[in-house]
Amino acid sequence: MASLSQFLLFFSFLFCLKNTFPVLGFQSNFALFPVAKDAATLQYVARISHGAPLGSTDLVVDLGGSFLWMDCNSGHVSSSYRLVSSCSVNCSRAKFHDLGSTSCLLNTNCYVSPYNGVTGSTSMGELVEDVIAVDSVDPSDVGQSTTVDHFLFACASTFHLQGLASGAKGMMGLGKASISLPSQLSSSIGHPQKFSVCLSSSTGVLLTGSGDTVFGTKIARSLAYTPLITKQNDYFINVQSIKINGRRLAVHEHGKLEAKLSSVVPYTTMVSSVYAIFSKAYVEAATKMNMTRVETVAPFGLCFSSKGPLVPEIDLVLQSEMVKWRIQGRNSMVKVSEESMCLGFLDGGLEQSSPIVIGGLQMEDNLLEFDIGSSMLGFSSSLLLKETTCSSSLLDSTLKQFF
């Protein structure tokens, strides 16, 4: 987690603490959370400041999580958090999507079900409220740190941390639920109802609200948009077809290929019937480009000699031929040794619930804007094609803005 610490030092300098104030009546452009990739688990870890005294906690980012949860008994222990009553409005907000969980008993605490998106397990946890601090920018006065009172999250047991990156004490849920991080900050600080992620193999960022100030209007205005579908708390897009080096794959019998976006799955997975067609077509395209197959390395299904700079282009064609998410190079291949690289698309099995799950590797160095209000996903395709990355574009544009 050294990269996260270095990144935090930069932001501590950049967003120097001028003053701390209540958010009531305050409007800001965005709230910012640095994100680092854990090398061992390939999970993306964000850091949040909360409690009294103010301290930090590392949380695994979960696009499909309904709320933020953490182990409140280890790591930073806050003396200011308060339990939420089961008969309160906030408890009702937290349980809005939990059918059959609306009853309450006086003088009892509100219990919710924290979900570990890595292991797929659910546990019982108490809903609490506390103060959090976020780096935020006021259009009229940059560099202020904003405190958000009465922020809702869940306390989970230590055993529920199983499978998470070392040092992570919970998960940061970014789903559409009313108490997810983006939803709470939107209502508390006055953000637009949207958030952006720009993941990286080193340092990336999560923004709630508008990201134009950070990434610059040139990148922000270059985004293509496709309809965003929300099911429970997961985000999906519809893929009309898949192309490899411009050749359309014969997956039309599957109709629209619903694709889930997941920050806890390291590589894109496909249901077996789709993967079989995809992998065969990829091998054919690679052979035409004189790529040499080599022995596979788990968990990958296709591996090649790393000699030669070019690999096939993969296009996810969305609502029209004019709107496509292009995946190539570093977003499609994983270097496993000095001599070989493997295709970062895996067979998800026969029972995978969604035909496609777009994983972290394919989202890296792509600016993704989740506009919840208009149900649209904005995407840049690889920033590498624009000769920048999530890390460099963030630092460059921020330095231009503030120095």
Automatic annotation (TrEMBL):
It holds the Pfam family TAXi_C. Keywords: Secreted, Signal. Transmembrane segments: none annotated. InterPro entries: Aspartic_peptidase_A1, PEPTIDASE_A1, Peptidase_aspartic_dom_sf, TAXi_C, TAXi_N. It is found in: Secreted, Extracellular space. One of its GO terms (molecular function) is aspartic-type endopeptidase activity. Residues 44-380 form the Peptidase A1 domain. It comes from the Eukaryota. GO terms for biological process: proteolysis. Residues 1-25 form the signal peptide. Its main location: secreted. SUPFAM superfamilies: Acid proteases. One of its GO terms (cellular component) is extracellular region. Belongs to the peptidase A1 family. This is Peptidase A1 domain-containing protein. It comes from Gossypium darwinii.
